[in-house]
């Protein structure tokens, strides 16, 4: 046993260092098991951890890394405290135990379940193992149903259990299931609505708020919590957030400011990886006069009506934005915020598309970017230059890799031959060790070259045009400035 993976997982509701399910507790149990075994204690240990992830979802960073290492034959054995730490899905867990791990020659040990695939001999098909997996699956589903039922009861009773209140409100210190007006910033909300009713646009209001140094939602929450709860949510390099039109729009469109509690807008299930389902407005439920209002219903309706009257129907809906493969991947090199795309039309068709940074524009620090098509052409040239491989080149790489595999077979046979010569006294020990070490280096160099070819083949693509799929395959983020493309972060 050369490489052992210790996998540990803890859910959000289990995140307590004093519980038996804590990461430290799981680690101690697993290491105690390993070091009490003569067979296991000499192996190299690798840790894979997921904190705050449910066992019902297979989309977990630590688990993804572990399974990638398994597929690349870098792990011989996986050890967990119990099977529920690894996975609660009954069918998926069974598939790993019965098919995937045996095929990859990976030993799987669940300590408290008393399961070891090396000695079990049933590949997890034994009835007690299946029953435990079924119970884990049922437990997860039962918890999900109970959580939904509990939330529904709380919503219907008007209890505010949806996390942090919107800008302008705070949790009632005497009852954390109620919200009260935040006197520090409530006037800012009233100010925004008054500016809308004066005829100001959302962008104009954002600029006014920034010019006057009005506290943003993120900054106010940082004051209340004592830490920045938004930190790490985006890749922006700007130190502080500023007001932008979308932030103002969210406030003006939120009925909570009229004293109305709105719920049943969306749901989130633990069973499908936390996927959020959004419901149409017709299915929303409301409790009127639920809390003290900041804005009158009349002002709220007037502001909404005014915004609706200004709304212009964009050419072909959102097709202007969807048509670019670079949408969502381009950021301003100065501030790190995602840039926006605006189309210039003649009323019937798009003439050209420009790129701008709203963050820098609101701060009057905007740089003039090139047109979008210029960036698209440049990205296409970069991808084609770095990753395009035609069929002839691909076959050449495959042939080279085959030759390396063949050479390694010959080296393995030669190593065996020299070992036999040494065993039968035809070769001195010193000479055998010298030959063996030389063969080992050659084998390792060949394997390294094989891995490099694998990497090249994985990246290789037939890049004849710029598509969204092609960009997403290779690129994570593109940073631009007035000079052009400054940097590309590849996947």
**Strand neighbour order, sheet with most strands:** 2-1-3-4-5
> What is the radius of gyration?
30 Å
Under the CATH scheme, which class of the largest domain?
A: Alpha Beta
The end-to-end distance, rounded to whole angstroms, is 32 Å
Main pleated sheet: 5 strands, mixed
Describe the model.
The structure is a single chain. The chain is of the alpha/beta class and 491 residues long. It folds into four domains: 3-147, Rossmann fold; 169-310, Putative Large Serine Recombinase, Chain B, Domain 2 (Hect, E3 ligase catalytic domain fold); 319-386 and 474-490, no CATH class; 389-460. Helices cover 46% and strands 16% of the residues. The chain contains 17 helices and 16 strands. A five-stranded mixed β-sheet has the order 2-1-3-4-5, sandwiched between helices. A three-stranded mixed β-sheet has the order 12-15-16. A hairpin with a 4-residue loop joins strand 13 and strand 14 (350-356). Helix 4 (90-103) packs antiparallel against helix 6 (127-156) and helix 15 packs antiparallel against helix 16. It is extended and about 100 Å long. It starts with a strand and ends with a strand. The model is unreliable at 313-321 (pLDDT under 50).
